[in-house]
Design brief:
Catalytic activity: L-aspartate + 2-oxoglutarate = oxaloacetate + L-glutamate
Mean pLDDT: 96
EC number: 2.6.1.-
Keywords: Aminotransferase, Pyridoxal phosphate, Transferase
Protein name: Aminotransferase
GO biological process, one term: amino acid metabolic process
CATH superfamily of the largest domain: Type I PLP-dependent aspartate aminotransferase-like (Major domain)
Radius of gyration: 21 Å
Low-confidence stretches: none
CATH class of the largest domain: Alpha Beta
Shape: globular
CATH architecture of the largest domain: 3-Layer(aba) Sandwich
């Protein structure tokens, strides 16, 4: 067999893709074992039937053929209006490309701003696909390390150390996996670094409707940053449309024009009936987004009450998104060892911090994605398990 490209064989950098515990849990479920899954960011409520109805009507009306590659004009207009209202930055359809989900948008953004061999930065801890997306675009990932003692917010020294020679910096606020919301001080650090080193900012903002403390601020809204920022958005988290695969990139019109050329030669756009369902969803207003976010806000409050009673497990402040990052270093276990032991002993699946980078070693990420009573029971069991491990250490 002829050899495969280095690009495709090096996506995971020769190591694990970070999903080992998740795969173990799903294998157990497939074999008939009952597992409480607190691993991935999948809503337990499903897509609203009204949105699915709009998708169904659109498909029956014939929107099943080729759609405009940049996205249908009405949806691009709606996204532009939404982004402008939230950031105060003038935005039109020419600043918007509709993509098959946020993941495709992250890949496309790096294709736009990095040449083969360029260095692309990302904040560690990170969403598990970030380094692989950068490698898939033939760039070289370089981590900006953070510390739990700083709530995993990037510090100026770490940014200055990583930035020389780089072309881009990928940031994510509200953050997956940490649950932190980047405030003005943190974003000012990022903006200073981008301007000093002439970096593009790729800003993953798919959790912008899930903010429990503070307020969401896009780096695109900071002075001098709109011309060097590409914003990633998605319907997945805001409207529980994860499987619909619809998102967007917002950026300078000249960049979007080039990204349309990339889409023409890769995805060839997003199905029209899915786009019209997304347009219907956005037109329902902020109330729908609030309803989708409500279970996670409620479960966060439950979690904080439960964790307050533990001497072993410490929560990184959960300010946004559908996750809580837990410091379990007092048990003496790594995040991976803790997650595997919890799965084996109690059939509760959480993600090891090591799945998200070096900085999160000794932590686990808990997704708040099951109904309240089961979630509370699982978290109490996790804390008791941690306490017992600490006593035995």
């Amino acid at each position: 067999m002829p050899h495969l490209s280095h690009r495709i064989t090096s996506i995971n950098g020769g190591g694990s893709d970070g999903w080992d515990v998740f795969y173990r849990a799903r294998t157990m479920v497939a074999a008939g074992t009952q597992v409480t899954e607190l691993t991935i960011g999948e809503h337990d409520i499903g897509t609203d039937p009204a949105i699915l109805g709009a998708m169904h009507r659109s498909a029956l009306a014939g929107r099943t053929g080729y759609a405009m590659v940049p996205g249908i004009s009405a949806l691009r207009d709606a996204v532009a209006a939404r982004v402008q209202a939230r950031t105060g930055v003038p935005t039109t359809r020419d600043n918007v490309l509709i993509t098959p989900g946020g993941q495709a948008a992250i890949f496309a953004a790096h294709m736009a701003v990095c040449d083969p061999g360029d260095t692309a930065l990302y904040i560690d801890p990170y969403y598990a696909t970030y380094p692989g997306s950068i490698r898939a675009a033939s760039a070289r990932p370089r981590a900006v390390l953070t510390r739990a003692e700083h709530a995993f917010l990037p510090q100026q020294e770490a940014l200055d150390t990583a930035a020389p020679g780089a072309r881009s910096l990928l940031v994510n606020t509200p953050n997956n996996p940490t649950g932190m919301v980047y405030g003005r001080e943190t974003l000012d650090r990022i903006a200073r670094t981008a301007q000093a080193h002439d970096l593009w900012i790729v800003s993953d903002e798919v959790y912008d409707t899930q903010v429990w403390e503070g307020a969401h601020l896009s780096p695109r809204a900071l002075p001098g940053m709109a011309e060097r920022t590409l914003v990633i958005g998605s319907m997945s988290k805001s409207h529980a449309m994860t499987g619909s695969r619809i998102g967007w990139i917002v950026g300078p019109a000249a960049v979007i024009e080039r990204l349309v050329e990339l889409a023409t030669n890769t995805t060839y756009g997003v199905p029209g009936y899915i786009q019209e369902a997304a347009l219907f969803a956005l037109n329902q207003g902020a109330e729908v987004e609030t309803q989708v976010a409500a279970p996670f806000s409620r479960r966060r409050a439950l979690a904080m009450d439960i964790l307050a009673g533990s001497d072993t497990v410490r929560a990184i402040p959960s300010q946004g998104a559908m996750y809580i990052m837990l410091d379990i270093r007092a048990t003496g276990l790594s995040g991976e060892a803790f997650a595997n032991a919890l799965l084996d002993t109690h059939r509760i699946a959480v993600m090891p911090g090591e799945s998200f980078g070096l900085s999160a070693a000794g932590h686990v990420r808990v997704a708040m994605t099951i109904e309240d009573d089961r979630f509370a029971a699982a978290l109490r069991t996790l804390c008791a398990f941690a306490d017992a491990r600490r006593s035995a250490a």
